[in-house]
Amino acid sequence: MTILVILSVVAIAVLIAELAIYLYVVGSQLTRVADKLEGCAGVVWDIKANAEPIESGVERINNTGRVIAGALPLLYGMAEGIVDGATYEPAQETEPRPARPAMKRRRTRLQEAVGYSPEGS
């Protein structure tokens, strides 16, 4: 056998080994994904089982909501009638008064603190 045939057989064997390793890695990852999806499917079935009793209640809630939505214009009109009679209107002053000072003469206490009295006492 020539060296070229031997190298070709070795190359094919290495290629098959690499493909086997690759398929093993991909298979193990797919197995983990399948396990997690199985767990998720169990959770989804539990949620579906828990939601089934609620379905009839949702229909009642929707019907009640429709009744309330139909009554809102009437309630709004009644509320407007109540507010119209109770609206506060402040008394209007005829002429605004000017601001007046709080005291007649402003004085400082700093002078008294040092013993000076401007009135001469």
Description:
The protein is mostly helical and 121 residues long. It has a domain at 7-77. The chain has helices at residues 3-86, 110-114. The radius of gyration is 46 Å and the shape is elongated.
Ranges with pLDDT <50 over ≥5 residues? Answer: none
Number of helices, counting only DSSP H or I runs of 4 residues or more: 2
Could you tell me the mean pLDDT? 83
End-to-end gap: 135 Å
H/E series: HH
- Beta-strand fraction estimate: under 5%
Alpha-beta classification: mainly alpha
Helix content: over 70%
Taking all Cα atoms into account, the compactness measure Rg is: 46 Å
Largest sheet at a glance? none
Shape: elongated
Quick summary of this structure?
This protein has helices at 3-86, 110-114. The protein is mainly α. It has a domain at 7-77.
Topology:
Blueprint lengths: L2 H84 L23 H5 L7
Q: Main attributes?
A:
single chain, 121 residues, mainly alpha, 2 helices
